[in-house]
Automatic annotation (TrEMBL):
Organism: Paenibacillus aceris
Record's keyword terms, sorted: Glycosidase, Hydrolase, Metal-binding, Zinc
Family under the similarity heading: Belongs to the glycosyl hydrolase 42 family.
Residues covered by the Glycoside hydrolase family 42 N-terminal domain: 11-375
Ranges that cross the membrane: none
Reactions accelerated catalytically: Hydrolysis of terminal non-reducing beta-D-galactose residues in beta-D-galactosides
Residue ranges of domain Beta-galactosidase trimerisation in the record: 388-593
Protein name as annotated: Beta-galactosidase
């Protein structure tokens, strides 16, 4: 990829006549679109009859784009196998949890583990890579589209066979599986691997070990499919490869991106869900550390389908989204989609241009994004995002545990986003890091909603603590083993010994009248919780009278090495709970010596970046209410070419400022 900030859109040239395509390219040039993504749903255009592959149309279109100065991200079309693949072949199709077999249409209707699908996917991928790889202007590849967005774990016969093989490789003997899963319960005991079922229809609930492991199996298999496609493309192209994923999909993103070249995501968070938008940027920046990520899809105005629509963005918000993304480490900011679709299930979806070729309600905002991109590009390209000193651990494997054991419909995504929102509102610069990420350079680590904590993760977290950092464990962390069973030595296993506590009870706090007091705030407590008796730790938060466990601790801290281990056993709720969490975060940020932070009002973002001889703050108002930030010293605005005084800097509605501080 060249050194530029990309401003792009998804485009479907196979759906339109040549005169429309020529019009589109001219309009893209006027709008400032410098990259398009094509091909992801075009398998039937490329291979209308089995074995008859013709890519000349796409070669021609990429040539037109290149002549116009517009680059291409080429996609593999595997989310939509053609009718010749599906018709009369139910054995090749995806089967859901109710054992319903999908028919042709929509997308993701095939089982991606079926050997015939893998064979045909490999053939079309190789043809595309051969024909498209050498073309000028092809700057990247996207595999498939939104793996496991509409479907979860497939329960077809192919998957059953592969699941049982996966279990045998994992456990070695059926006796070890029985022992790990505790299958003597409810007479679930198996005598051979081919007896182990998939988690299909059942009178009540499946064994937790079976349900969670089946999700992990499915996540590994879809990542292996991505690996296969990427390996084929690399034989013919040096352009970097990605996939457009999301925390909403049934994938392990850390595993998925392990063998890809850069990370990208799709987001349709509405304008009033700022944490839901920003958490993706802070997480995707860390899937391929040192490599810029892309926003591959976001709406220029609103998301919609035949059955739903979202609130449109207010004028000005799209520019704030884009500037925040570029500042936080995005190289590309792209829309779904360029020209509104005239047919299909997403006809109403927001676009840049209407089906009849006129600007949409989002178009003026796209022009604002392009103006901002041009203004900040030189500054962004000459700097890199600063690593935060505060890390929040994110795990899609934990998401699998919560899907198996959601209690009262707990959402891992919702829990993590809310917790992230508390961090965001303190003005601390933060990284959201995958479970397996290195923790070097962090001073304050939060590990919430991680039912199983591996020994590898524990070891890395302890190194952070021993060097003087603070590790905040919980809530809802550590109560399960790797096999999704309950510990038998202590409620939270080894964490209790490390934290110097004994968990006296674990129980759901909702409706129990339980409240707690810490940092001068009293707040109701929520979720399934752990309450402690300190052994070698100090009680920091204590349960109040009137609940089930008065006097026991729900927050403890213990010195370890040069740092501290903090246990947060319950989630404070409501406005008072928000104040309590805010005080907890800031207290331990101060104790850990966190310096990468700003005095900024809620709803406004500071993204710090660093160049060779200067630092940059990109400040963006995200909530449309305006805001302010206190500048620690005087700086220079490279956009206006004006000096900026230290002290309070005011920003208007959805406004942004770039401030350069020389070393």
């Amino acid at each position: 990829m060249g050194k530029k900030l990309y401003h792009g859109a998804a485009w479907y040239p196979e759906l339109w006549e040549e005169d429309v395509l020529r019009q589109d390219i001219a309009l893209m040039q006027q709008t400032g679109i410098n990259v398009v993504r094509i091909g992801e749903f075009a398998w039937s255009n490329m291979e209308p009859q089995e074995g008859h592959i013709d890519l000349s149309f796409f070669v021609k279109v990429i040539g037109w784009l290149s002549e116009a100065g517009i680059d291409t991200v080429m996609c593999t079309p595997t989310p939509t196998p053609p009718i010749w693949f599906t018709h009369g072949h139910p054995e090749r199709m995806y089967v859901n949890e109710q054992l319903q077999v999908m028919g042709h249409g929509s997308r993701q209707h095939a089982c991606t583990n079926h050997p015939y699908f893998r064979e045909k996917a490999a053939i079309i991928t190789e043809h595309i890579a051969q024909a498209i790889g050498p073309l000028p202007g092809v700057i990247g590849w996207q595999l498939d589209n939104e793996f496991k967005a509409h479907v979860a774990e497939c329960l077809c016969e192919t998957c059953r066979s592969q699941w049982q093989q996966w279990l045998e490789e994992r456990y070695g003997t059926i006796e070890q599986l029985n022992d790990a899963w505790g299958t003597q319960i409810w007479s679930e005991y198996y005598h051979s691997f081919d007896q182990v079922p998939q988690p299909g229809p059942a009178p009540f609930l499946h064994n937790s070990s079976l349900k969670t492991n089946y999700q992990l199996f499915s996540m590994e298999k879809i990542a292996q499919f991505a690996d296969e496609q990427a390996a084929i493309i690399r034989n013919y192209s040096e352009a970097p490869i990605t996939h457009n994923s999301s925390v909403a999909f049934h994938v392990d993103n850390e595993r998925l991106f392990r063998n890809l070249d850069f990370a990208s995501f799709d987001t349709y968070a509405t304008f009033d869900n700022i944490p839901g938008y920003l958490i993706n940027n802070d997480l995707w920046r860390n899937f391929k550390r040192g490599r810029d990520y892309w926003i591959m899809e976001t709406s220029p105005s609103f998301a919609a389908s035949l059955e739903s629509y979202a609130k449109p963005h207010p004028n000005g918000y799209l520019k704030a989204e884009a500037v925040a993304a570029y500042a936080l480490g995005a190289e590309g900011f792209c829309y779904w989609l360029w020209r509104q679709q005239r047919a299909g299930c997403e006809q109403p979806h927001g676009s840049v241009i209407s089906a009849w070729g006129k600007p949409t309600v989002g178009y003026p905002n796209v022009l604002e994004v392009e103006q901002a991109r041009q203004e900040i590009e030189a500054t962004i390209l000459s700097t890199r995002p600063v690593q935060a000193e505060v890390a929040l651990t994110y795990s899609d494997r934990a998401k699998a545990f919560l899907k198996t054991e959601p209690h009262r419909k707990l959402s891992h995504r919702g829990l993590m986003t809310d917790f992230y929102g508390h961090l965001l509102n303190t003005g601390l610069h933060r990284d959201v890091v995958p479970e397996g990420a290195p923790l070097d350079g962090y001073k304050l680590l939060f590990t919430p909603f991680l039912p199983y904590v591996s020994s590898d993760y524990t070891e890395r977290a302890l190194q952070l603590v021993e060097a003087g950092g603070v590790w905040v464990i919980g809530p809802f962390t550590g109560g399960r083993t790797a096999e999704h069973t309950v510990h038998t030595d202590a409620a939270l296993g080894v964490l209790e010994r490390l934290a110097g506590v004994e968990t006296v009870y674990t129980f759901p706090m909702e409706g129990s009248g339980s409240a707690g007091s810490a940092f001068g705030v009293n707040a109701p407590l929520s979720l399934w919780s752990s309450v402690f008796e300190p052994k070698e730790a100090a009680a920091v938060g204590v349960l109040a009278e009137g609940g089930l466990a008065p006097g026991l601790a729900f927050i403890t801290e213990k010195q370890h090495g040069k740092g501290k281990i903090v246990m947060l056993g319950s989630l404070p709720a409501g406005e008072d709970g928000e104040r309590l969490l805010n005080r907890l975060i800031l207290r331990y940020a101060d104790e850990a010596g966190v310096n990468v932070r700003s005095d900024v009002t809620k709803g406004t973002l500071v993204a710090p970046r660093r160049g060779v001889d200067h630092d940059v703050w990109v400040v963006v108002n995200m909530d449309g209410a305006g805001g302010s930030v206190t500048l620690p010293r005087g700086g220079f605005d490279p956009v206006t070419q004006e000096h900026v005084a230290p002290g309070k800097l005011e920003l208007g509605r959805y406004a942004h400022k770039v401030i350069r501080f020389n070393h």
